[in-house]
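Exercise 7b. Backbone tokens:
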């Protein structure tokens, strides 16, 4: 009996692929069962999956823009060491499960208020280091609870940047490398930004002083205009009064009657 069973199994093993039963729908149906549920991996990237978590590795792939076909169930997205210069608003809003986003080593110059829309809840790490970022809108990072890396960017230290950093979770290992490439206060050019802020330096005070000076200059200008108008008005009235007096002097005098007024009978 054992030999018969073994023979049948060997026979089944020798059957040709055409003799196997294929479910209705053909080989395409089998292919669908073999594919992951998420979208296809972007071209030039690798998408390994571990314990149900999808990681998209596009490091050093020569990318000039953020891929549009990133799987929606991506947890880790590495776009570092590319040539991305601009990130459109809402580029990652469909990645609700994203935990880590690495954009370091690119050519990013500006960040829009809605660049990271949709990532406020779950994102844990955002790496923007080694880019060309000069200014950061307060709305761009204000709602993120992620730890942010901003080192090695040519930042312009001003009041708007200081307000954008308030409440932001900076990566402690790279925070000291955040420096002022330019600044509204020349003495802090090339100096570590966080150390200056920890020492109580306020770039907003310089902004307020500049605004106050501008307001004083404007008020002085208006005051000078009012004084000039008053002086002109007074001089014009004096000139008109003088002309009127000369006109009255030029009129012939009327003789006054010296006869007493007769009384009524």
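Sequence design result:
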């Amino acid at each position: 009996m054992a030999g018969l069973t073994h023979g049948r199994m060997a026979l089944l093993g020798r059957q040709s692929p055409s003799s196997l039963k294929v479910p209705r729908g053909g080989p395409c149906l089998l292919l669908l069962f073999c594919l992951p549920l998420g979208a296809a991996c972007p071209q030039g990237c690798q998408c390994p999956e571990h314990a149900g978590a999808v990681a998209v590795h596009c490091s050093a792939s020569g990318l000039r823009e953020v891929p549009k076909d990133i799987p929606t169930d991506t947890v880790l997205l590495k776009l570092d060491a590319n040539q991305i210069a601009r990130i459109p608003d809402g580029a990652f809003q469909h990645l609700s499960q994203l935990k880590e986003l690495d954009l370091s080593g690119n050519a990013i110059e500006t960040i829009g208020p809605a660049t990271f829309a949709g990532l406020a809840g779950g994102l844990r790490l955002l790496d923007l280091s080694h880019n060309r970022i000069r200014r950061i809108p307060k709305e761009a990072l204000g709602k993120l609870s992620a730890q942010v890396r901003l080192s090695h960017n040519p930042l312009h230290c001003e009041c708007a940047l200081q307000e954008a950093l308030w409440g932001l979770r900076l990566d402690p290992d790279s925070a000291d490398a955040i420096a002022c490439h330019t600044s509204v206060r020349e003495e802090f050019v090339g100096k570590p930004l966080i150390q200056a802020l920890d020492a109580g330096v306020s770039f907003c005070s310089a902004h307020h002083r500049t605004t106050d000076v501008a307001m004083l200059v404007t008020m002085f200008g208006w005051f000078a205009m009012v004084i000039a108008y008053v002086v002109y008005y007074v001089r014009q009235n004096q000139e008109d009064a003088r002309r009127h007096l000369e006109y009255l002097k030029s009129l012939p005098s009327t003789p006054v009657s010296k006869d007493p007024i007769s009384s009524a009978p």
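Instructor comment: DSSP finds six helices and nine strands in the chain. Confidence is low (pLDDT under 50) at residues 1-38.
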